[in-house]
Inverse folding.
């Protein structure tokens, strides 16, 4: 960048300062998206090092997983909520990428997660994808893939039905519907692999459970789950 461009960049930064996506303080030149203080103090779960963590337990007896974890605790009114809101609704896909890299640099140190071959994001229905412009789970997957040296597969798990309007239904009714929502395309591409299924937030786990059931129909597959946040 030449002197004139640097001057211009500084001037633009003065007029439109870059703010931390979690606490809204002005970022320093060396910071990107999340300030150092937030990065240090975000409510990390450490679930990736606890085989019997609460996210993993949600799937016990339902789907056969190698491991499951979430990076952060999601609390109403907290920094993670602000971060996730900006990520999903303020056209900031790079937040997912950054959180993916943070998660990936932790998971790569774990003997189970570091054997992951491919990362599969929970798919959005194509109508919803068009509306938002990006799949937030795929952004998270991209960041993870960089650190885990795995590939991202966005074509093998397909969402057949748009479930956006289902939020008011009971959990049971929702899950009955969910079973029919996902399908596997070209299963031979996943055969024998360790797949990491990823989503942005895990709450009841019904969406992930339905995706896991579809993926577990692939022969000799090993499956783990990771999400950005766990909502209590
Ligand atoms: Zn901050």
């Amino acid at each position: 960048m030449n002197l004139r461009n640097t001057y211009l960049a500084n001037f633009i930064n003065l007029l439109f300062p870059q703010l931390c996506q979690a606490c809204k303080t002005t970022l320093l030149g060396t910071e990107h998206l999340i300030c150092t203080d937030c990065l240090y103090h975000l409510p990390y779960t450490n679930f990736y090092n606890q085989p019997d963590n609460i996210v993993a337990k949600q799937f016990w007896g339902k789907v056969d997983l190698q491991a499951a974890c979430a990076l952060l605790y999601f609390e109403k009114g907290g920094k993670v909520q602000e971060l996730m809101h900006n990520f999903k609704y303020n056209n900031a896909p790079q937040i997912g990428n950054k959180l993916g890299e943070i998660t990936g640099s932790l998971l790569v140190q774990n003997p189970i997660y570091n054997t992951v071959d491919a990362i599969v994001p929970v798919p959005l229905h194509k109508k919803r994808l068009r509306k938002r412009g990006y799949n937030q789970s795929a952004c998270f997957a991209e960041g993870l893939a960089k650190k885990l040296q795995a590939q991202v597969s966005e074509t093998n798990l397909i969402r057949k039905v748009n479930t956006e309007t289902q939020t008011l239904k009971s959990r049971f009714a929702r899950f009955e519907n969910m079973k029919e929502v996902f399908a596997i395309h070209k299963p031979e591409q996943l055969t024998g692999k360790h797949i990491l299924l990823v989503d942005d937030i895990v709450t009841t786990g019904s969406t992930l459970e339905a995706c896991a059931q579809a993926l577990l129909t692939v022969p000799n597959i090993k499956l783990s789950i990771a999400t950005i946040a766990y909502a209590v």
User: Anything to note?
Assistant: The chain is about 40% helix and 15% strand. The longest helix spans residues 94-107.
